[in-house]
Amino acid sequence: MDRNANLSKFLQSDGRTVILPIDHGTIIPVPELSPLNIIEELTPVVDGFVVNLGVATAAGDHFGGKGVCLRTDCYKPFYGDNVDEGSYRLYGADEALAVGANAVMNMLYSHHPNEADNAREVAELISESLETEIPVILEALPFSIGRPDDYTVENVGFTVRAAAELGADIVKTAYPTDGSVDDFRAIVDSCFVPVVVLGGAAMGDDKALLSMVRNSIDAGAIGTAVGRNIFQHANPSGIASAISAIVHDGATVDSALKLV
What we know:
The protein is of the alpha/beta class and 260 residues long. Helices cover 40% and strands 17% of the residues.
């Protein structure tokens, strides 16, 4: 399968996507996440999944023809007295091919203390992808994961552009903290590859989440890669359907809320 065919596994005919990352089991406690069950429940609703190697192997044909993206790094956040290693790469394009994945995903942390090693690992992954036609989605975040105070318009804009310049096929990033639709549109417009927005920690506020999704699409993002705000939700299928209605059907926040 060539690069465009692999990418198309995540996109509907409108060129947009709702991706569900369920790769959190290596970074934070997620006892409520049963990967095979959530895949089975949400395959009819979402367009693709981000998974770790073990889940990709265990799930087999449970993905129902939807796009499968292999997480190639581990990105443990700061915890207690542990040294913050940032992102460190574990797998690559060969493992993606072995499990039938259609893409790979790796963190890109700008301004992180281990930025140099991270950038080299990203470059190596992209080089491998050019030989195998496996697209690369870079999760571009300033400093590290879970740093909303650092997700300013300036910092997010720089990191998104850097991900594109390094060779990402798609850039996944955070909606800038306190950023307007125009602010995010400027970031998306300056990035010459598609952008999807992540959800971050579970908000516990459906309207706030769906408003962020609506603003992201209005700013030119092609979709979402929301994980915890779906699988930690009391109604995963309902909130995923609401996000999909905004992304694919142009729904308003109020009309989407009725699906939850």
